[in-house]
Each structure stands twice: as C-alpha cells, then as structure tokens.
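dumping this here so i dont lose it
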C-alpha cells in the first residue's frame, strides 16, 4: 500500500520512518539499526531516551506543561536560569529562554540593538558576521548567515549585513598554531569595522568552534582574544553563537571556554534541550540587560519560550551531563575519534583535513592535499558519502565547504556518551562507506 505524505521539509526526498531510539542507536520501522553519528544535527548530545530526563519530564507533565511567562514564573525556569548563569562567564547573569537556535540569535541581535538605542548609540545597527557561517533561518539570523545556497533565494535580503572571511587557515596554507595567523584574520574584522564606520557597527557575531557551514572550524591561536580586543577598542558588542558548540559537546560547556574569552551575549540551543524539548537561551551580561529593563523592558518574546516542560527537560539534561561526566567523555572519546579520523588520511588521499574539538569533529574531502582543491562538483561527494554511510547504518552530516556550492565536509559528532567500543563500530561503518566511495 502506498500512502501519500502531506509532510514537507527542504526537499521531497523521503527517509525511513523512525521507530525508536536509545543511547547512540536509532531503529527504523523495518528494524534496521543506525548509529546516530551526528546526534541528529548535533542535538542529541546525551543520547536518546535518557531515563533521568524522561522521568523529570514525566514528573513535570503531571504538574503543569505550560504557564505563560507574563502570568507565572515557573520553578524549572528559575532553576535552569540559575544553573546556566553558573556555567557561563562572570557577569553573564541574565538568561532569556527561547525555543531554538534561530530564536536565540534573533534575541541576541534585538537585545544588542535595544541596548545601543537605550544608551544613546542609535547610529549603531550593523552586525558583522563571517563567511561561511550559519546563524539561523529566520530573516534576521539569515541576514547574518554567510552561506550562499541558503541566502541566494531570498536576495536582496531585507537587511544585508557586512561579512568577513572565517579564519580557514588550512585552506590558506597558514599555521593554525601561530598567533600571527590569528591576528591576520582578526585584522580583517578591524578593517571591516573601520570601513563600515565604527559608530555604525553594533556587534560582531561568530561561532567559537564552527558548526555545519565550516565543518567544526577551530580558530587559530590568538584569534579569539584578538577579536575580543578589537570589539572593545571600537565599542562593538561581541556575540558568540554557541548554538552548536555550546552545551558541552566540545568538552567544555561553551566552545569559547577553551580560550577563556567572554563575549557580551551568547546564543545556545541544540544540545541544551538535547532533543528532549525545543529549548534555547540568549544569555547576556547584566551590563546590557539592566539599562534595557530600566527603560521599559526588552521588547521581544516568543509565546512558548521558557515553558516549564522544556525547562524541566533542560535542567535534567544539565544534571545528567554532570552526573555522567559527559563533558570529560566528550574530550576522551573526541580525542580517540579524531585520531582515528586522522588515521584515515593514510588510507585515503582524498581526505584533506580533520578538525574540531571534543565530539564536534569533521573531515573534508579534496582532490589533492597539495592544492586543497575540492573534489569535482559533479561527484556530489557530500550526498554520495552520506548515502553510502546510511546504507551501512551510520548517520553523518554533510555540507558543501566552498561558498556552499562545492567542496565536501562531513560532521562526525556522535552523542557525548559514546564509548571507545562504539567508536570502533562507527569507524568500521565509516571505513566501509569510504571504501565504496573510493571505488
Ligand atoms: N546557529 C548555529 C551555529 C546553528 O548551527 C544553528 C542550527 N544549525 C542555528 C543557529 C539555528 O538553530 P535552529 O535550527 O534551532 O533555529
């Protein structure tokens, strides 16, 4: 019997129907088992069907599932905000809940803008971002996104925003460990601020450890600190989009914690709700929020934001990460997986780069390592290899590396509970898929 589907997302291609998921594994309705090798889209950080989280959600459901924020505070909301404030840099005490990553980024832009207006800096409205980057699908977040296939259909953007290149040292033949490299890319930001006119620039937004668009790009030495200094020098707010890199996946709660750099505003989501609830947060420094609250309040909000069920899930996720030592495991298993991916470079000349931190890892395919030219576009390696892995029962996530139109990188980001034995299993499937691809 064929049944017509009324569902649609990005494309009309159909995937198997999900039956159940536990730990790092998922099963379709035909009983085929998959390793969730990208945690969905780097979401299911603590694995599927975690008993503590399910229990916390069940208990919350018995009490209440919704209380509108203008009518009630909720206990899970208060507790989760306090917990998050304790995990973020000093002074970043204000937590604004939302239901996803794009909403977190929108909230960050709007808070920055309302703050500037409140303190009399009305001329500052431009938000500089990087190419490639992904900051979300809503129009504000999309205007900051530097990823051609996603922005092109909507151009001219309602509000185009200035962009600078992401620090892709591996493509420019520069040494990632040399602080001169970090400075080289950070100076691009300073030049852009000056070119735009510093008193028109509101903020700079970037992903501390890159996500889907760059494929787990790790910034070169000195970059994070230099960017902070440049923003300070020009009165530009610094926003960290930690929607993917936050929540513990890199081995620290925030990706930026690896460099000890504090921004003014942080956006988190994905691993924060970890697939149990649509949840995100915008976390801001008191210094920004107080004047806005004093001058009549933040003129922004989403109806479902901070609902008690989502907050109870988020709280249990954070407790489980702590209780299970999952950030430590993300470091341990991440180091092992990265070294195993590096080993693949001996076997396949077309793997050009392996990068990332903790369990936010990626590898990139190239024609040859000398030139780092991408594989021919027509090979469609980004979708080809994903399908071959899928046949093996391994789910990985791919994107086109260069301007979104060619080049192929693959995110290998299993949940933070992945063991050494499960990495062996994953690598066996990945190697089988790569062998087929190499044929
Ligand atoms: N920022 C980053 C860095 C992301 O990776 C994503 C999602 N891929 C978003 C923002 C948008 O999040 P959402 O899809 O939950 O709206």
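and the seq i came up w/
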């Amino acid at each position: 019997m064929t049944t017509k589907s009324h569902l649609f997302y990005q494309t009309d291609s159909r995937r198997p129907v999900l039956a159940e998921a536990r730990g790092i594994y998922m099963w379709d309705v035909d009983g085929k088992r998959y390793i969730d090798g990208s945690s969905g889209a780097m979401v299911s950080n603590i694995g599927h069907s975690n008993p503590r989280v399910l229990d916390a959600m069940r208990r919350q459901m018995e009490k209440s599932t919704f209380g509108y924020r203008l009518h009630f505070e909720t206990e899970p909301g208060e507790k989760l905000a306090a917990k998050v404030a304790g995990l973020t840099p000093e002074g970043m005490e204000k937590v604004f809940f939302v239901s996803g990553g794009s909403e977190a980024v929108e909230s960050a832009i709007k808070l920055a803008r309302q703050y500037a207006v409140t303190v009399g800096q009305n001329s500052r409205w431009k938000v500089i971002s990087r190419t490639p980057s992904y900051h979300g699908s809503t129009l504000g977040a999309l205007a900051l996104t530097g990823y051609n296939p996603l922005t092109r259909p909507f151009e001219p953007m309602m509000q185009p925003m200035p962009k600078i290149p992401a620090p892709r040292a591996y493509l420019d033949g520069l040494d990632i460990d040399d602080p001169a490299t970090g400075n080289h890319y950070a100076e691009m930001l300073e030049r852009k601020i000056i070119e735009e006119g510093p008193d028109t620039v509101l903020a700079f937004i970037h992903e501390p450890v890159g996500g889907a668009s760059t494929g787990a790009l790790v910034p070169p030495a000195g970059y994070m600190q230099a960017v902070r200094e440049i923003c300070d020098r020009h009165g530009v707010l610094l926003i960290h989009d930690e929607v993917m890199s936050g929540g513990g996946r890199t081995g620290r709660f925030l990706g930026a914690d690896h460099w000890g750099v504090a921004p003014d505003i942080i956006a988190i989501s994905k691993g924060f709700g970890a697939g149990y609830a649509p949840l995100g947060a915008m976390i801001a420094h008191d210094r920004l929020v107080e004047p806005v609250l004093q001058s009549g309040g933040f003129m922004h909000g989403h109806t479902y934001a901070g609902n008690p069920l989502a907050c109870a899930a988020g709280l249990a996720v954070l407790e489980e990460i702590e209780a299970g030592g999952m950030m430590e495991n993300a470091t341990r298993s991440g180091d092992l997986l990265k070294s195993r991916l590096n080993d693949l470079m001996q076997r396949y000349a077309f793997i050009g780069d392996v990068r990332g931190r903790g369990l936010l890892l990626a590898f990139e395919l190239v024609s040859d390592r000398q030139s780092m030219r991408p594989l021919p576009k027509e090979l469609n390696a980004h979708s080809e290899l994903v399908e071959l892995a899928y046949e093996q029962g391994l789910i990985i996530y791919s994107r086109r590396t260069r301007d979104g139109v060619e080049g192929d990188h693959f995110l290998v980001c299993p949940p933070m509970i992945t063991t050494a034995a499960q990495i062996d299993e994953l690598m066996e499937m990945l190697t089988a898929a790569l062998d087929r691809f190499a044929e």
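The mean pLDDT is 96.
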